[in-house]
Amino acid sequence: MQSKVLLIYTGGTIGMVQDPETGALNPFDFEHLIDEVPELKKFKVQLKVHSFSPPIDSSNMSPKIWLELSQIIFENYSSFDGFVILHGSDTMAYTASALSFMLQNLSKPVVLTGSQLPIGVIRTDGKENLITAIEIAAAKQRGKAIVPEVCIYFEYKLFRGNRTLKYNSEHFDAFRSPNYPHLCEAGINLNFNKQYIRALPSKPLKLNKALENSVVVLTIFPGINSSVVKSILSIKGLKGVIIETFGAGNAPTDATFLNELLKAINKGIIIANITQCMKGKVMPGLYETSRRLQEMGVLNGADLTKEAAIAKLMHLLGNYSNKKIIKQLFETSLAGEM
Ligand code: ASP
User: Is 13 a catalytic residue?
Assistant: First the structure.
């Protein structure tokens, strides 16, 4: 039986055209995109398209649209074998991370892809990305999905979505998954790395809708001004902070700085520690400079990407109010993100 794939077009460079007046790239409707890829008609996959109107540049992505996307997938879940989301590459890793927490117990592929050059440009990377993403979304073995995960397919590699980051704004291989191996490599065949792909869940799909966006990322740097830190942590309604620290999770031991963090924690603000390094993880207590954070109750973000850490914090703050539960869940891998 032919696989059925729902293709959701949100926008992004893949479908953009140049404004003749300004020269800037703007999102464009899906019809012209389909015209550029006649190969789609040859597919042995039943494709249905859901197009956002108007399509957007992914810099305008938001939790509201994440909810819309997760709802489209949830409502169409039983009618399709897999889902492909066409999305701008700029915030694709954020969307993939958010969806991985919102779509709990996923047993079908949700593959995000896009391109660095619009589909109408002769050297576009969009065609290959789109065609292979559909193949992966449709791929089954013994009637079950091969990749039951939210993933990103770009330039011949499939990554776990909540492990990726956009690291290159110019090259076709725009994404990296520094702390987790790729799930598939597309050559003559699709070579799946089955040992790294999540197992099929035993429970049915659950949609976690709530996201709390009263969060901020605070990147530490030598010379960071305590009054700046103080004013960030005093933002009215602030619920969560991701601190991006040095190396294995280290931060200044300056008393004024640490005191501001402690005051925020005592007010009920959740603070979580991730590293500024692309590879590796937070190791609380390895140095005195991280032990202090651990002692005051800063959560351990281990090897989470910034994108996954933000999405995870928004998800947990949206769904739980008990600080102990938030801590416990934040430090546990929920969707293979850490
Ligand atoms: N600005 C574009 C977007 O994220 C870039 C891209 O698609 O690659 O929508």
Answer: yes
